Amino acid sequence: MTFRDGLLSDCRVAFAYASGTAISDQLHRLGAWVAAIDDAAAGDEQAASAWVAERLPLTALVFDARSSFEPAGTKGLQKALERAWITARAVATGALIGADTPGRLLFVAPPPDAGAHADGVRAGLENLARTLSVEWARFGVTAVAICPGTQTTDHELATLIIFLVSRAGGYFTGCRFDLGSVDAGGAFITAS
Fold first, then answer.
1. Structural domain contains residue 5
2. Could you say which of 11, 59, 94, 110 is the most buried, measured as most Cβ atoms within 10 Å of its Cβ?
């Protein structure tokens, strides 16, 4: 899929976790300003809020749980969901709520084969996105969960993320996007 140059020139994206380096590079190539939230800030409410305050304005958060999720036991499940909430709250309350432009929260879940609790993280991020889409709708903040399949590539994931942080993606909120579910001309995506 080809996007026009400068498509994301008005986007300032906070990206939590480094597994999406290829994705953040593609966002940057289309004109987005992208900064990675370091692991220490993502795990601490005050540090996350300070990180956001130093980088205002922001228009979106991409929380990539693929690298924050540790499949060894329920602690990995808890860590991924806590960090998703900490970063989402910090970005939303520090940058998106009260902003002049709509804001986006995107939660990328681990693939289903990432471990025994991967489905729990996927369901938790979907629930978080659906809940925040209702709670923060009045502030113009949208929230979606993206659930890659076992064969989903970073390119496929980046294509969806680019669309969702663009102006056109603002029509989607409270959705779960399942990549790898239905053949859509080379990309497998369903939304529910």
1. no
2. 110
- pLDDT tens-digit map of 116-172: 889 999 999 999 999 999 999 999 999 999 999 999 998 899 999 999 999 999 999
pTM: 0.91
DSSP H or E segment with residue 6: none
Cβ-contact 191, 179 below 8 angstroms: no
The Cα–Cα gap between 3 and 161 comes to 12
Residue 48 maps to a domain = yes
Q: Is residue 7 part of a domain?
A: no
Closest CA to 18 of 1, 41, 46: 41
**Cα 33 to Cα 149: distance, rounded to the nearest angstrom:** 28
User: Is the residue at 2 inside a domain?
Assistant: no
Q: What is the pLDDT of residues 47-85, one digit of tens each?
A: 999 999 999 999 999 999 987 666 656 777 888 899 999
Each residue's pLDDT tens digit, 86-102? 999 999 999 999 999 99
Q: Are 62 and 23 in contact (CB under 8 A)?
A: yes
* Domain CATH number, residue 160: 3.40.50.720
| Domain residue limits at 57 | 12-191
Closest C-alpha to 146, from 90, 62, 74, 87: 62
How many structural domains does the chain have?
1
> What's the pLDDT at 39?
84
Q: Which two tokens stand for residue 61?
A: 């958060």
